[in-house]
Amino acid sequence: MLLIIALSTFVCISLVAMGVYWLVVRPQSAATERLKSLGNRASAPSITDTISIAADVDRPVSNLAEKVLTPIDKLVPPSAADVAKLQRQLMQAGFRSKDAALLFRLAHLATMITLPAIVMVACTFLGKPLGSAILWILFSFVIGFFLPRYVLNRMIANRQQLIRWGLADALDLMVISIEAGLGLNAAMLKVASELKLVHPDVSDEFELANLEIRVGRERDEALRNLAERTGVDDLRSLVAMLIQTDKFGTSIAKAIRAFSDSLRTKRRQRAEQAAQKAAVKLLFPLACFLFPTLFIAILGPAAINLMDTFSKM
């Protein structure tokens, strides 16, 4: 009986959702779609559109994602600031496609729906009470709401860490290339080709910045876009230094060499800071897992002997 009630509830909710979907969605004419595409094409490019030069931007937008999210956008339209922020975060995570934000929102919606459905089916088969099942469903909904954002933030942090690790090697190679007679653009291309296997994230970003310069963008704008795509503070400082050096006409090789030395000093300080934190971080696992085991192994036989002695008395 409980299984029949759960299945009936699920079917009713699905039918209501489908009804709302078909009521909200209105088929557009070919002229309306054409005007909409022309309006999007004529809009001014923003900083988040710098990835249009990459090779993977020609991938079409998923029809399923567009059909599912269009009625939701009509009911709860997202703000332009939120869309731009999400697009920037996806670029920092390494997703440069134009439809990355749309697919991420679809995955977010699917996670919020799929996890509660799985928990509801599991609670039905396990015979959980109604109050307990509702609590578990709400808890899974909260997890489904925050899980995609957490995964995205972790991907951004990991990629930024990889870029920080490879930036010092990239600067050393850039100094050698510039002192050998190459220009800044050629040095960036050399860094992108040489570090493709060792530091692929750094190589991709430098190669994309070089492609932006090739298609006609100003070097200052391409470098700013490079810092915006990665979100790494060290790379922002490097970009600001390169722009000032190019503006005032000073030696680029000397500036990059000085910045590379300061960057390696900063890396050493970060390593020392992580080593100092390691002792504090190890305190909690030791206190929770190792010390109780030692107490049991050392004091256990003595406690057993005391129990036997008191039992004989």
Could you list some keywords that capture this structure?
313 residues, mainly alpha, Receptor-associated Protein, 11 helices, 81% helix, flat
Protein model, in words:
- It is a single chain.
- With 313 residues, this protein is mostly helical.
- The chain has a domain at 163-268: Receptor-associated Protein.
- 81% of the residues lie in helices and 0% in strands.
- The chain is built from 11 helices and no strands.
- The chain has helices spanning 2-24, 30-42, 63-75, 80-93, 100-126, 130-179, 184-194, 200-214, 219-230, 233-248, 252-312.
- The longest helix is centred in the last third of the chain and has 61 residues, at 252-312.
- It is flat, with a radius of gyration of 29 Å.
- The termini are far apart.
- 18% of the residues are buried.
- Residues 41-61 have low confidence and may be disordered.
